Amino acid sequence: MRKITLSILLVLVIAALPVGVVVAEPTPPGSWQQETYSQWSISRFIQTELTNQWWSSDIFPNSDPTGGTQVVTAFDADGDGDIDLALGRWQHDVLYLNDGAGGFSLAEAGDFDDGELFSYTMAAFDADGDGDIDLLIGYSGAISSPHALFLNNGNAVFSRGEAGELDDTPMESSALAAFDANGDGKIDVLVSAVNGSTLRPIELFINGGNGRFTRQDAGALDDMPRRANAFATVDIDGDLDLDLVMGLGHEQDAVFVNDGTGRFSKVEAGDFDDEIHDTRAIAVFDANQDGYLDIVAGYYGDRDALFLNNGQGLFTHSEAGAFDDEARRTYTLAAFDADSDGDMDLAAGRGYGYRGPDSLYVNDGAGNFDLAATDVFVSGSQETFSMSAFDADNDGDLDLAAGGYAQFRIYRNHWNDPTCVELSYEGLSASDGDQFHESTYPASLLLPFDADGDGDPDLATANQFGNRSSQVYLNDGAGAFERIDAGMFSSELWSVRDLVALDVENDGDMDLLAGLYQQGTANVLFLNDGAGRFSRGNAGALTAVQGDTFAVATLDADRDGDEDIVTSSLVNRNVVQRLYLNDGHGMFTVGDGGALGAVELSAWDILAVDIDGDGDSDLVIATSGTGVILLNDGHGRFNEIDAGAFASLRSGRVAALDADRDGDLDLLASTIVGQFKLLLNDGAAHFSLSQTSNLQGVMGVEGWTLLDVNRDGAVDIVAGRQNQTGALYLNNGNGVFSSAPSALFTDFATSIVALAALDIDRDGDEDLAAASSGAKAMFRNNGPGALALFDAGDFSDKNGTLTYAINHLDFDRDGDLDLVVGRQQQRNGAFRNDGAGRFSRIDAGDFDDRAGKATDIAVFDADGDGDLDLVVANGDWPYPLTPYPGVSAEPTSRNALYLNNGSGVFQLVDAGDLDDTTQRSTTVAAFDADGDGDIDLAIGNGPTYNGGGERNQFFLNDGHGRFVRTVNEPFTNFSNTTVIAAFDADNDGDQDLVLRSSQGSASLTLLFNNGLGQLVQGASGDLWRSQPSFTEALVPIDVDGDGDIDLAVDNDQPSWGAPAQNSLYINDGSGRFTRSIAGEFTSDSVHVVAMAALDFDGDGDMDLATTNDYENVPTPNILYLNDGTGVFSRARTDAFGLASDLLVALTVFDADGDGDTDLAAGGEVDSQIFINKNRSENGSLTSTLITPAIVDPRFGVSAWQAVQVNETVPPQSQLTYDVLNAGGSPIPAFSNLRPDAAGRIDLSSLNPSAYPAIRLRANLADLNTGPDFNDRTPQLCSWIVTFDMRQGHVYYFPLASHSAARAQ
């Protein structure tokens, strides 16, 4: 079984910031929990509810403010697998423990939070080698103090430790780095400090392994006194030790290379060290994706700078777009993939004198950085000194913590990326309908095996860090997994470092052996009952060992037909490698393993494979110091041989493959710094490093696996990369790998720590199981789809007419979003989501018991019990001047409050003044008007049948769901109101109101909130000049990405008497609005009925969907795409645009749980759901080269047979296809071919001698034609080519799984 690889491409150490580390032996790769300064993959942020006006008093209490934070460090303090936060502050450091969902509670941290000193630098690492993360603090201020080491007891309680020479001298710390300087597997410390105004040399302290440090001569580092503000430890010269990039104050920056023993020499670094700056922050990463590490420097009072590496270690000052366009005062930098496009972006925290918001810069992939929307960060004077990116809520993406002079903040990542997941030309999409995806049981180990003996692969999951539940998931044979009660394996909590499956007792089923860490017992055997239930078994000497096990491998060492075991363990503080021989009945004795026992270092991975081709299993062992190869003599005695280049690698994981298809097994290793190394076998088990693999530039590797993605007979690589999207590397069959064009897992997670290849659905290709922090997913080999009308179960029935109100909420707390609809003169409805976008109607209690006249539904927690309740505004729509036949002139329905019991059953309750009188209500806005923490209500009332109008009403909530009507003029003076929206117009932190009323001048009216709930009318720019006589929808939306809220308004008149049209009003940030030309949105002449904002295309800006009608004549609904500046263009017409019913209500939400935004619509005839699959425009799809010889190089094609096309469209076969020669040119007589009714194209007349290899092209332009296009899903799932080989065998070759979403 493979272990997770520790992948530290770089470690950034910034003045006043925490540092990154390499984990010391015996902690295996992947156990490093500090997530502060490596490469981060964050997308778009919103500020978490823990801070600013949403901050929670029990998280950051007023009595303990989080201002004055100098340094933020993210690490796993309590060993539970999620990331906690240590804040070094000007006084009184604090530790916040994460509940796994992003909720933080202040912890009692022992000695760590007892002091009152000014913490300036911080590092989190395992100082004493006990497997948990300790803290080292450097102080500043008027009184110099020694550095302080705080040792963790494993439960986040820290005691002051004795750190040897590291804490023997008072000093003011300015920069700190913790890393393995001398290659002994223990974490050392580099310090820059001053004594008052006296500079000190840079000092290196070597760790003795127990947290006691001694000074060591560091070569050129300590030649002269200097003050460093920023360190970055990174392998700059590619020799697998960590070098140093140093940012200095008021002198030239410098690069020092390590000789491997901790002695550093200064090297020429080109432009980087040519000039003098006051450098405060350093980030090292591959900015332009050329495979070399570049340097970004943040300066105090100067322009920041990008230095590109020429591949020889010389750095050239390069233009970096908006990042370096003006002088700033930068204090901190965080490099991460903000937009999930595979390149690294930058967040910058600003210091004194630059008091605008912090900045996010988006990389175009070539090292040009554009300023992203400023709404990412809180505006105002922040003076941010420290930033740390980490996964706060275990949702698979990285969030951002920022600390400084003002309040500490967490920005939660809410990037919505609807793009499909694909493996180059074969897609991978998340498998639906199973329990493997559940986040309740996170995993860092994945083991495919047949648990129940039914012939398909099941999955066992386990966790390497912290005592957590292990699980078994049974496969139904079609790729859907059900979690089962796996007996003792899943009933107890384990910290499993390695897991293997083997038939211990020779009874025909697969048992499990777990190597445990810090459990007392080193190895535990779980015996299978044949159905996947496991009981703990006695395996003799194997299970009697007391200690810790790091790696396990199974093999038949003595060739007696049963499976033996090799382990690497720590027993009585001694590293031992042991061979355990099986007696055939599951009892093991220690065998004579020969040279196996002489391996001194603990193994991070053990691979059992026949490396020399003699028929027995040899051993390939990856350790923290060297690579070892042991050949088996056939009787279980092993002899060490010269391992060639593998011996010099410090690898975290190793796998065998025939990369160059020469008949012998090569090795692929990932090093402890996250680089791939391909080692080619010369046929005699001697390995040399490949110079042509194209893998040399791959950085940050974490979990990875081997599989033949495209079934061409060559083994490919799928890799999760640290805080980046995953990657696919395709093998050309000669051991040369090319990166596939599409990033993997973009809609799942970054930092994939475990991957396993298995054929979950028995279709002959390999699928993938993946695990990240707090998330798991199964990826099936198929393709994505397109925006299409979706069969949503009961919700799409034809019985729900006159739906004029619709909203979404998770009413049953199962994690997906459900729907509620309000209807006219019919029963309301509640629909439960199955998680895949299919809805079933439920009994919702009082909510759907009676017919009403619903016009709007507000969703919020009315009574403060934690679940979401409903307020229904009741009136008549669309406000007829005469009653409906048989309906009285007065309203028969009052506004109503329905309280949720937590499972989606709603009870009608007495809501105080809210339901005291009958009103003809039309619209409701729910918001906290008076800032007391509960939700109040503004209700707009419409016209009466006699032509008059009811005045608006305003209600304050008492916190328990009883509402008191208040006079809130001028809002309550308005009547005949059709729409209200609440939003912060003037950026003062409270919610204001905009409304359309036909009273008086009938303009749009903006009412400003004074923060206490009193609404006053103020200057609003062009809004008061509007004539919204027909306005039925207005949407607050930030169209231009400037951080303030603009307004999209339908059916507006620029002036009295002018034709009605849509309008867009741009906010200047203070609540003054200017009418703007917004492309087709403002030029189209349509009568809009409903409007909603959504990010349809996943580009980070907000688009608009409108449903349209004019004098009861249906016109197409329209989806308008935003270019990011507030200019909108129509998207291609699809099922939404051509919906035949008049849709009068819209809500946007993720119906099918795929991470993008879908639409639900209520109409006069039907309710519908439109699923977002984000297809692209017209084009064509061309396959890769179809060469039958790839299937078996000994034979050629004797006859082409057919192409089987799989289009998931009704009716079948609407696309035309071209057959191309190997060069890509159409073959005469084989163009514009249309498949038959069965989806087949006959190729039998194609001459195999003239065309031994072909390509296929699908013509997507055909999707625009045909009478049935409106009902079609424009998706080509796959094409399968069949042909005969000269041996008479028929080969089925699934070549490509494509979609219009990837048109080329």
Measure the end-to-end span. 40 Å
Helix percentage: under 10%
Coarse shape: globular
Largest sheet: 13 strands, antiparallel
- Structural class determined from secondary elements: mainly beta
Strand content: 35-45%
Low-confidence stretches: 1-66, 415-439, 782-800, 877-892, 1190-1195, 1208-1213, 1264-1275, 1286-1304
Task: Summarize the SSE layout with pairings.
Elements lengths: L9 E5 L3 E2 L25 E3 L21 E7 L8 E6 L4 E5 L5 E4 L10 E8 L8 E7 L7 E5 L5 E4 L10 E8 L8 E8 L2 E2 L3 E5 L5 E4 L11 E7 L8 E10 L1 E5 L5 E4 L8 E10 L8 E10 L1 E5 L5 E4 L8 E10 L8 E6 L8 E5 L5 E3 L12 E7 L8 E6 L4 E5 L8 E2 L2 E5 L14 E5 L8 E5 L5 E2 L1 E5 L5 E4 L3 H4 L1 E2 L1 E7 L8 E6 L6 E6 L5 E4 L3 H4 L3 E8 L8 E8 L2 E9 L5 E4 L11 E7 L8 E6 L3 E6 L5 E4 L9 E7 L8 E6 L4 E6 L5 E3 L11 E7 L8 E6 L5 E5 L5 E3 L14 E5 L8 E6 L2 E7 L6 E2 L13 E7 L8 E10 L1 E5 L5 E3 L9 E10 L8 E6 L21 E5 L5 E4 L11 E7 L8 E6 L11 E5 L5 E4 L10 E7 L8 E6 L6 E6 ...
Parallel strand pairs: 2-8
Antiparallel strand pairs: 1-17, 3-31, 4-5, 5-6, 6-7, 8-9, 9-10, 10-11, 12-13, 13-14, 13-15, 15-16, 17-18, 18-19, 18-21, 19-20, 21-22, 22-23, 22-25, 23-24, 25-26, 26-27, 27-28, 29-30, 30-31, 32-33, 33-62, 34-35, 35-37, 36-39, 37-38, 40-41, 41-42, 42-43, 44-45, 45-46, 46-47, 48-49, 49-50, 50-51, ...
